[in-house]
Amino acid sequence: MSFTHLDRRGHARMVDVTEKRPTVRSATATGTVRCSDDVVRALRDDAVPKGDVLAVARIAGIAGAKRTAELLPLAHVIGVHGAVVDLTVGDHGVDITATVRTADRTGVEMEALTAVAVAGLAVVDMVKGLDKAVELTDVRLVAKTGGKSGDWHRDAAGPAGT
After folding, report:
1. Which residues are tagged catalytic?
2. Residue 84 and residue 114: Cα distance in Å, rounded?
3. How far apart are CA 40 and CA 25, in angstroms?
4. What angle do CA 61, 111, 139 make, to 5 degrees?
5. Distance from C-alpha of 74 to C-alpha of 104, rounded to nearest angstrom
6. How high is the mean pLDDT of the chain?
7. Domain chopping of the chain, boundaries
8. pLDDT band at 158 (very low <50, low <70, confident <90, very high)
9. CA–CA separation, 115 vs 57, rounded Å?
10. CA-CA distances (angstroms) from residue 3 to 6, 11, 16?
11. Which of 13, 111, 130, 161 has most Cβ atoms within 10 angstroms of its Cβ?
12. How many CB atoms lie under 10 A from the CB of residue 2?
């Protein structure tokens, strides 16, 4: 078995995608920020002392998607041509969904995951003064389209994405 991110000596390397043709690709990831009933109430009442949590988290998630290559050393710098970060307050906390799109040589799975993680961390940062036990959980890829490997959806993939 050969690994695409290792050279002949086993050293990490960035995969060369120069010869690949750009194609339309998308990826969707989800995650959850679990928090106390008091925080949920404050979120619903727009009463979090630091301000509009969902707006800040939405912008943070988009910025995270655009800066993924700066954070992950083997990720390619790609054009993020679309990024949507949705946050919904539920009884348990905040559900986050991010969809990232591009027309490039490699996929945007890491950008979607980064968008969710950064949006979630922004929520945590804004409510941690109200709930020290707040936590970001269940960050996962749920779908991708395009590219050589084609489309993938978590619900169709079986247990643990197999």
Report:
1. 125
2. 12
3. 35
4. 70
5. 16
6. 91
7. 23-154
8. low
9. 9
10. 6, 10, 13
11. 111
12. 5
